[in-house]
Design brief:
This protein is of the alpha/beta class. It has 8 helices and 7 strands, in the order E-H-E-H-E-H-E-H-E-H-E-H-H-H-E.
Length: 251
């Protein structure tokens, strides 16, 4: 039976592949974008060629006050496009990156990371709860850098660590509605994230590949399939877990 997924940050990178994999599983997909409306609309069109319904909505997690309006727009759009104001899977993927040494972190940068990677996710999830069907799924994106330290990632990893704790509480408190909550923690992935830091730095890519037992860095499709699996019936008994998808880097 077709269900509806909301993938934040779905216009590029990991979110793009997640949306495609969910559509391949027969689900309809809502994606959000911040600036890449053209790319988001291209993905919507591609999903529709697969026989699934799709739409794209603008979302700025750094603007916490805009979340109420976003949820109203989401509800209205679901009704207009899908004939329901409910959805089933919330994938909190949207994010931003920067490699900044601890001593150079400014309060403004800290606050932006806080909003985008933690506070925005926390309250978007809370505000979306009335729209999530019983038996739904929440999947939050974290990072391998909560397990191993990567210089320059102190702010990013700290917020992702908070997301991992938050997810455990979601699993505990939403169980009465049969909603599961899990974390997917990617390792290094070659996308345009963080100004395509891996793609644009062959030496970094080689170093990360050499630290990974499988001998390469990750690709977007390595993550999308795991997210799609967690939205399947086969994953219904997985709850409150951190699933690292990193090729075993720094194991």
């Amino acid at each position: 039976m077709s269900k509806i997924a909301l993938v934040t940050g779905g216009s590029r990178g990991l979110g793009y592949n997640m949306a495609l994999r969910l559509a391949e599983q027969g689900h309809d997909v809502v994606i959000t974008y911040l600036n890449n409306q053209i790319e988001a609309e291209k993905l919507v069109a591609l999903v529709q060629t697969m026989g699934r319904k799709s739409l794209a909505l603008k979302l700025d997690l750094n603007d916490i006050k805009s979340l109420d309006d976003f949820v109203v727009k989401l509800s209205q759009s679901l009704t207009q496009k899908f004939g329901t104001n409910k959805f089933d899977f919330l994938i909190n993927n949207a994010g931003m990156g920067a490699t900044v040494p601890f001593e150079d972190v400014t309060e403004a940068l800290f606050d932006e990371f806080l909003n985008v990677h933690y506070k925005g996710v926390y309250f978007l999830t809370q505000k979306c709860l009335p729209l999530i069907n019983e038996g739904g799924r929440i999947i939050n994106l974290s990072s391998g850098t909560t397990r191993f330290a990567n210089p320059g990632y102190s702010v990013y990893a700290s917020m992702k660590g908070a997301i991992e704790i938050f997810t455990k509480y979601l699993a505990k408190e939403l169980g009465k509605r049969r909603i599961t909550a899990n974390v997917v923690a990617p390792g290094p992935i070659e996308t345009d994230f963080n100004n395509a830091a891996i793609r644009n730095n062959p030496q970094l890519k080689t170093m990360l590949s050499n630290n990974t037992p499988l001998g390469r860095v990750g690709e977007a499709q390595d993550i999308g399939g795991v997210v799609a699996f967690l939205c399947s019936e086969d994953a219904r008994w997985i709850n409150g877990q951190r699933i690292e998808v990193s090729g075993g880097i720094n194991s």
